[in-house]
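Retro notes, structure queue

What went well: the backlog is down to a handful. What didn't: a couple of records were mislabeled last round, so from now on we paste the full input next to the output in the thread. Example, using 3-deoxy-7-phosphoheptulonate synthase from Rubrobacter tropicus:
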Amino acid sequence: MDVSQTVKTDVKTQNGMIRPNTFRVIAGPCTVESYDQFVASAKAVKEAGFEYVRGGAFKPRTSPYSFQGLGEEGLKIMSEVAGELGLKVVTEVMDPYDIELVMEHAQVLQIGARNMANFSLLKRIGAAIAGTDHGVLLKRGLSATVQEWILAAEYVTAEGGDNVVLCERGIRTFETATRFTLDLSAVIVAKRLTDLPVIVDPSHAAGRRDLVVPLSKASVAAEADGLMVESHHDPQEALCDGEQALPVEALLGLKEELSPFAGAMGREVI
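Corresponding output:
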């Protein structure tokens, strides 16, 4: 299949989360650890001026001994806190049996890099969100080509789930200076091959918070439609990926950091 000639998803770009002439920022902790932790982190997202909060309830980890998330309890915490603050929730779904449960508590279902090629999950999610206001955020697999990434999205859209946003989160290369290598060229290529919005996750790509803001600025210039960044009210005490989470003061300044770059591209940071 020649992706340069045939892949055109022809889906709507005004899917609620991504709007014309805007640059969407999603922020929040890697994982919901407790009610108090999520309240503090979500309030910082609200104060920073963003509308979408992220958090993991079902958290895939490389080690089976690492914190795996709170499951349904985490979902309830997110939806309760987000509802009180007027935020929308983005969270990962890993198991087809959890799709309806996650849809009860979140507006956007994230498909992680490890599940990008889980085609049965993609099809079940596409069918589940068809005709609803729910969206899907599809992360690129660690070693997936742009073509494989786009075709994975089509497993969702083919079932009627047309509110799909692609997310570049870094790929495996020989480089070890960063956790993964952020492939901004893939963002540009994907946007030219599909009608799908594309956002960037600089937190997972860098694996270190000092690179998150510079990579965020570069993402604006690479024509991305937005970001998903990790933030935590107390990164030193985070149970998951604290080293890549922005502290509150950095999150509060993120919109101001990005606005000149977004403005130059004719976009408003929201």
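Agreed that this is the format going forward. Reviewer comment attached to the example: The domain at 22-56+65-269 is CATH 3.20.20.70 (TIM Barrel).
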